[in-house]
């Protein structure tokens, strides 16, 4: 309950309540001899103070985040296995680095967060970590930016498609981190009135090309798969984007996912 109170306070911009409740949650973990519980509370404290510190420019919040990150890493050394809180600690450090105008450090911390998160944990349960990594990597045009944007796009589309209540989904996308995550990846929430269907006249070879784009294949790989010159593939991709009425390959990927073409 203290963790949820702290998260709620943070969402409302109440820095004092955020710290009070999450520190109390960490104390309860210690009192009940639960280092894992204490570590989880401190990981949330690191993330939430970093988010609020980045948004407000409050250096005291950034310092509290760095302190919590240190405590998380110390506790993790006493626990077995890799925990999601390690990814949260790196994500918090990425946000602090962004606030301190340290883009290279932010990118490194974002990469570390993703390396820990992706092989072991369901990313849709840790969207704040994806958001932090995205903030550090996508706007800077880092080498992995395009792949990360595509992964976020797929995650958001999956959440959108599997949420039955359109009002719940609209509320979800109006929330800060979720809204910003969609903006980072260029995602537009689906029209809840109907599932988008493939347009009339989409040829079999165009569907295959769309599948390859959705898989993240670049022009050289597509050319190799289809046995066509790369310049012809580029022309066909451009023609397909025009036919679908989208402006980018990410838009084509979103269209395919919505239409069930994978």
What is the topological layout?
Elements: H1 2-11, H2 15-31, H3 35-56, H4 59-76, H5 84-99, H6 103-120, H7 127-137, H8 145-161, H9 166-174, H10 176-185, H11 204-214, H12 219-226, H13 230-244, H14 249-259
Helix pairs in contact: 1-2, 1-3, 2-3, 3-4, 3-5, 4-5, 5-6, 5-7, 6-7, 7-10, 8-10, 8-14, 11-14, 12-13, 13-14
Summarize the structure.
The chain is built from 14 helices and no strands. The protein has 262 residues and is mainly α. The longest helix has 22 residues.
Q: Tell me the structural class.
A: mainly alpha
- Main β-sheet, in a few words? none
Uncertain runs are none
Report how far the terminal alpha carbons are from each other. 41 Å
Principal-axis shape equals elongated
Q: What fraction of residues sit in β-strands?
A: under 5%
Total helical segments: 14
> Which percent range fits the helix content?
over 70%
Mean pLDDT: 87
| Element pattern in H and E | HHHHHHHHHHHHHH
- Strand tally, please? 0
Radius of gyration: 21 Å
């Amino acid at each position: 309950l203290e963790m949820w109170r702290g998260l709620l306070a943070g969402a409302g911009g109440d820095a004092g309540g955020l710290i009070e409740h999450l520190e109390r949650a960490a104390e309860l973990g210690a009192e009940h001899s639960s280092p894992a519980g204490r570590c989880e509370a401190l990981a949330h404290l690191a993330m939430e103070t970093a988010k609020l510190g980045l948004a407000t420019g409050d250096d005291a919040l950034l310092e509290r985040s760095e302190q919590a990150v240190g405590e998380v890493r110390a506790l993790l050394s006493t626990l077995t296995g890799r925990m999601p809180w390690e990814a949260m600690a790196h994500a918090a450090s990425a946000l602090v680095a962004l606030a301190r105008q340290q883009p290279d450090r932010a990118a490194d911390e974002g990469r570390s967060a993703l390396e820990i998160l992706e092989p072991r944990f369901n990313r849709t349960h840790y969207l704040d970590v994806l958001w932090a990594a995205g903030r550090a990597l996508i706007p800077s045009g880092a080498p992995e930016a395009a792949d990360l944007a595509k992964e976020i796009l797929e995650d958001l589309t999956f959440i959108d498609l599997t949420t039955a209540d359109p009002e719940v989904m609209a509320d979800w996308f109006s929330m800060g981190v979720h809204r910003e995550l969609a903006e980072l990846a260029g995602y537009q929430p689906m029209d809840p009135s109907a599932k988008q269907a493939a347009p009339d006249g989409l040829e079999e070879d165009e569907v295959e090309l769309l599948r390859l784009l959705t898989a993240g294949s670049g022009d050289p790989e597509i050319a190799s798969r289809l046995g066509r010159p790369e310049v012809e593939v580029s022309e066909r991709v451009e023609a397909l984007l025009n036919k679908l009425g989208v402006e980018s390959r990410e838009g084509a990927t979103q269209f395919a996912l919505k239409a069930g073409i994978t």
